[in-house]
Specification:
- The protein has 166 residues and is mainly alpha-helical.
- The chain has one domain.
- It contains eight helices and two strands, in the order αβααααβααα.
- Helix 2 crosses helix 3 and helix 4 packs parallel to helix 7.
């Protein structure tokens, strides 16, 4: 907010700021599932948002038909070799007072509600569930040793910053 001059620094300091973060290992599984299942039908719709983000429709086409391990092996080595550093959450965490972890979302929200005095009956509904995961919530089941190593390397800074483990 401060970088866009929405509020001054003193006002920003008085706010309680929180963000939701997600385990990169889990997030990568959902990214693959969306590209190989959930978003395929959108390829036929030229007005879909997937065609507005440069390269995204191509990344879906390249993922189709690949297992998770194959997709990771095709996606991350070049990024790592080029010195890219993966980030899903890192840029949003700086300057926050608290983080709600996706894997503990409602529990962490309860703590934030108590801290800021929100009504106890508020809850976070589950929407946008990745259908392509076929109901599998345990991200560990998608990984083999190589895919785990590649994702760990690409998202190393974020995994360390947020204290995630495989």
């Amino acid at each position: 907010m401060q970088q866009h001059n929405i509020v001054d620094e003193e006002t920003l300091k008085s706010y309680f700021k929180f963000v939701t973060v997600r385990n990169p290992y889990d997030s990568v599984v959902s990214a693959w599932a969306k590209k190989t299942n959930d978003y395929i039908a959108r390829l036929d719709n030229p007005k879909s948002w997937i065609h507005k983000k440069p390269g995204y429709a191509d990344s879906i086409r390249q993922a189709v038909g690949k297992s998770f391990s194959e997709w990771v092996a095709d996606t991350y080595p070049e990024k790592i070799a080029n010195g890219e550093v993966g980030s899903i959450n890192r840029k949003y965490v700086k300057g926050t007072d608290s983080q709600m972890r996706y894997e503990n979302l409602q529990e962490d929200f309860e703590a934030i509600k108590a801290k800021v005095g929100l009504p106890s009956d508020l809850y976070i509904p589950q929407i946008n569930i990745t259908a392509g995961r076929d109901g599998e919530k345990d991200y560990h089941k998608f990984y083999d040793d190589r895919s785990r190593e590649l994702v760990a390397e690409y998202f190393k800074q974020e995994i360390e910053l947020l204290g995630y483990e495989f």
